[in-house]
Design brief:
By secondary structure, the chain is of the alpha/beta class. Helix content is 40%, strand content 13%. It starts with 9 loop residues before the first helix and ends with a helix.
Length: 335
Amino acid sequence: MNVRRRHISAVALTAVTALGLGTLTACSSDSAAAGNTDRFDVVASFYPMAFLAERIGGEHVHVTSLTQPGQEPHDLEISARQMGELEEADAALYLKGLQPAVDKAVGLAEGPTKIDAAELTTLETHGTEAGGHEDEHGDEHAHEDEHAHEDEHDHDHDHDHEGADPHVWLDPVKYAEVAEGVGKAFQKADPDHAADYRANTAALVKDLKALDGRFRTGLANRTSDVFVTTHAAFGYLAERYGLTEEAISGLDPESEPSGARMKELQEIAKADGVTTVFYETLVSDRTAKTLAADVGLKTDVLDPVEGITDHSRGEDYLQVMDANLTALRTALGAR
């Protein structure tokens, strides 16, 4: 849509080199580059943001993703071409704190409306262990949580999220909060299509609430609360449904666990009746299989939905999350 044709600023171009941003090729939802279409051009940082943009924007948006399918998003570097796409876009949708190179690039870009998903919900700090509190109030608790931050969406959250867990999209309730904020941002930036953005947002939020309901029902009757993962991506999900996530590594999926941590996990697995060590499709499964072999456990995939590939158990966020629910039900002995 970008009617105000811009050229990438000299400051931004210089910074691309100064920051050592990489040479990856941009991945787009179609062949046109951001800023060169008659639609509302959105550059999304990685899949969960692109999914929101596509569902909320519908036919009115052209979405370009900075992270290619199958690429581990934490490791993304930004090319000069991608920096140019950011400059020419109508909006940049990203999640501050997940991809340092994207945070730098968006900060330098002078053209787009900047939509930080981290400002649209409340972030928390999680370590290798997260969750562990039982949700005793069922749907009442869910409704309270859904509306806890309604007023916050209309205020400027100008605070630092350094050290906070960015994996909010794995909690359907928090992801719905983000969706509502993105919808409002699209309506403001592209008012000609505000009614459609509003309707599309409502439809997406309805789907996410239904997903939340499936998780609550599906995990209600289980024999164990503890699950083990390779990296600490599922803290929000664990807290939402009264589970405990024990991660081999922390928020960085490439970090190596200590011998002490591996021994601790062996003891936890035996004490809490853990049956399965979960790994994910975009990082190595070596440590998960090592731990599982040491304790005689099974392995399975719990997908953080950071990208959709041919190996994903579904074609979009909702399908992969349903597959995650099936895997958790099996591992936790849900009936």
